[in-house]
Amino acid sequence: MVPTVEWKDGVVRLLDQSRLPEYVEFLDCRDYQTVAIAIRTLKVRGAPAIGVTAAMGIALGAQSVAATDYESFAKEVLVICDLLAATRPTAVNLFWAIERMKRLLASLRTQPIASIKATLLEESQVILEEDIALCKAMGQHGAKLIATGQTVLTHCNAGALATAGYGTALGVIRAAWDQGKKIQVIADETRPVLQGARLTAWELMQDKIPVTLITDNMAGSLMRQGKIQLCIVGADRIAANGDVANKIGTYSVAVLAKAHGIPFYVAAPYSTIDLKTQTGADIPIEQRNPSEVTTIHGSHLVAPKGVAVYNPAFDVTPADLITGIITERGVFKPADLAGEFQHNVANAT
Ligand code: MRU
Prior knowledge:
The chain is built from 12 helices and 16 strands. The chain is α/β, with parallel strands linked by helices.
């Protein structure tokens, strides 16, 4: 797989996901403002990938701060952090990564500015590498849940493209495939932005993992016909009670899975678990531009001009619909997650 995000010769290089699958193009961000625009416009998307990109955006911005004393330098870096934090509200990995960079900055107060700049850059690389390692660990735990011959349904893209590499939900599928299990994947197209059709289908085809694309409204019928044995999705934020915010349509899949007695799993790293948010009702849901619904890819109109549109990018699946949450530490019942990840609160500011 081509890298989703990387530091390359002094720029943040992103695979432009808004152009996939038609064009495999890269966007070189030379300043943090371009990084922020890329996150807002979904050139890079997926909770862990957004977090990694924001950390690199901070490191990039910090390199060009001219201040020579700590107070002025830190003030400017915090402005960069604020701009990046305002890009998208739901994926908690964004805020997790920004807080981690801010904590590091505060701990470097006595260091020379040049060394602070270098340390911020190193930390963004550590976050990137850690994310890949977390995905691979999730893959190992989650692959045990998939038996050879099974068909797994996934929604949106929770793959290498949504992370620094390997993926969360698709990481589990990838690990099962790599273990030699003969599995099939059903990818929901995921209207309105079509992450399933454009990204998941593309990514799995790159790896030659058998994938069949369906429109979102076909999932129930396939479940009733016994064609799906397992559902695995990613997450943008998991509240303390185990409720999960993920791409709009995830809740419908979970309800359908429950109705058909099909296990429904969520795969996510610790950076997606937000114990400061008590329940799913407290998770801010991003509202996006109506044109995502009224057009295909921003150009071809598929609804009457001026029609009222409701376009939430995410929904919340209540904990009681979730069979288990696959993390880098193992698979947990949603209700047990808070106990296992208590240290997240201690590490948060
Ligand atoms: O709007 P997006 O494309 O950023 O939404 C992405 C999702 O909802 C993913 O399922 C989620 O971030 C998990 S990615 C490992």
